[in-house]
Amino acid sequence: MESLNLPEFAYKVKQVNGKPHIFDIIRRKYVSLTPEEWVRQHFIHLLISHYGYPKSLFAVETGLVYNSLAKRSDIMVLSSNSLPFLLIECKAPFVPVTEATFAQISRYNFTLQPQYLAVTNGMSHYCFKAVNGQIEFMDDFPAYGINNI
Predict the structure, then answer these.
(1) Per-residue DSSP letters for 12-31?
(2) Which of 11, 68, 109, 129 has the fewest C-beta atoms under 10 angstroms from its C-beta?
(3) What Å distances lie between residue 142 and 54, 87, 98, 115, CA to CA?
(4) Which residues have C-beta within 8 Å of that of residue 106, sequence separation ≥ 6?
(5) CA–CA gap between residue 83 and residue 75 (Å, rounded)
(6) Average pLDDT value for the chain
(7) Alpha-carbon distances, residue 103 vs 9, 72, 99, 119 (angstroms)
(8) pLDDT per residue over 89-135, tens digit each?
(9) CA of 6: how far to CAs of 2, 61, 91, in Å?
(10) Which tens digits make up the pLDDT trace of 32-50?
């Protein structure tokens, strides 16, 4: 897999029916190792090891409904009272983060309304707050702690 602009972590990969699968510590199972999954797993480990989020607050590839359409969010970090706190949209490293990516996560924001949103392709990462319809970009991702969650 491609080297990312994210810290390395100790991952477990195995072959299932001749295809690589990576162990997801949140879903507690091996999942197909696609380029997007590679980014998702790196980002999950970043949030846990560098920003202090407990695994118990994560939801991965959970469903949501937007305009009667079923969608899936890549990574959702919940607050301690189980409300959406940080929503992350992951793309494969070769997929550029574009206006369409921001539009996609904005649609999810309309339904879930987390405090923070982020988009990443493993190479470029953006975190922002949507406040009264305005986007406020952050210099870093919010760390887990009393002031944030």
Answers:
(1) -EEEETTEEEEEETTTTEEE
(2) 68
(3) 14, 12, 22, 10
(4) 117, 130
(5) 14
(6) 88
(7) 30, 15, 6, 11
(8) 999 999 999 998 888 888 777 777 888 999 999 999 999 987 777 78
(9) 11, 20, 14
(10) 999 999 999 999 999 999 9
